[in-house]
Amino acid sequence: MAVTIKSPHEIALMRESCRLLAIVHDEIGKMIRPGVSTYELDKKAYEMIKDFGCTPNFLHLYGYPATICASVNEVVVHGIPSKEKILQEGDIVGIDMGLIYKGYHSDAARTHGVGEISRADRQLIDVTKQSFFEGMKFARAGNHLYDISAAVQQYAESFGYGVVRDMVGHGIGTRLHEDPEVPNFKPRGKGIRLQPGMTLAVEPMINQGTWEVEILEDDWTCVTLDGKKSAHYENTILITEGEPEILTLYRDGREV
Ligand code: MG
Description:
By secondary structure, this protein is α+β, with helices and mostly antiparallel strands. It has helices spanning about 10-30, 40-50, 120-135, 145-155; strands spanning about 55, 70, 75, 90-100, 105-115, 160-165, 170, 180, 200, 205, 215, 220-225, 230, 235-240, 245. The strands form 4 sheets. The chain has a 5-stranded antiparallel β-sheet. Strands 1, 2, 4 and 5 form a 4-stranded antiparallel β-sheet that branches. A 3-stranded antiparallel β-sheet has the order 3-12-11, with no helix packed on it. Magnesium ion binds near residues 107, 169, 203 and 234. Magnesium ion binds near residues 169, 201 and 234.
């Protein structure tokens, strides 16, 4: 499938899809505390997305059973929400979700600390987030896709962290997963040339230890091979001639 360039009309719909998703992320973030189950977070996200007249895009995609992915500690991504999974003081939890507004998808992830977390875990979360913004310095028309990948990788690895290779970001639009793949490490070559109107989900997954991961028997839950913690940070972005527009952040740039 070819990489799509969105028209101004499509970009307006993407902006609204992403704006609504940012609101849901904000609310879910406020619920995170010791004692809450990941099921409760999932239920709230589902209700909010439905109340907006939108559709959760993870639910039933490739058979996935929930609205959000809630990935605790050594879970990298695709943690399935559960009534049995109760967040504990000192955990970190990655919340990944998206929605469809008038046929257009949004996708974003945040990693939160639960109560008091260790300095090491705080650093992991902060570096993962910053690695995304290091990538954004290269996310503009005329550059190549892997300029973003290389910047993410270099920053994260400078802290001794492992950059997950088995899963990557992606183009996004009328489908959640469009071309191109957006790796968080630099493959061979340069990647496609970035053009205004491309919309991408850029999503570093960064491990405290090895970059290697494995999938558990539920066929979804992706964990670090060494059992060390992992963090995830993602936004849907728009490539422009200048600075990228980070669609799943509030327009004033405030973090959600
Ligand atoms: Mg994504």
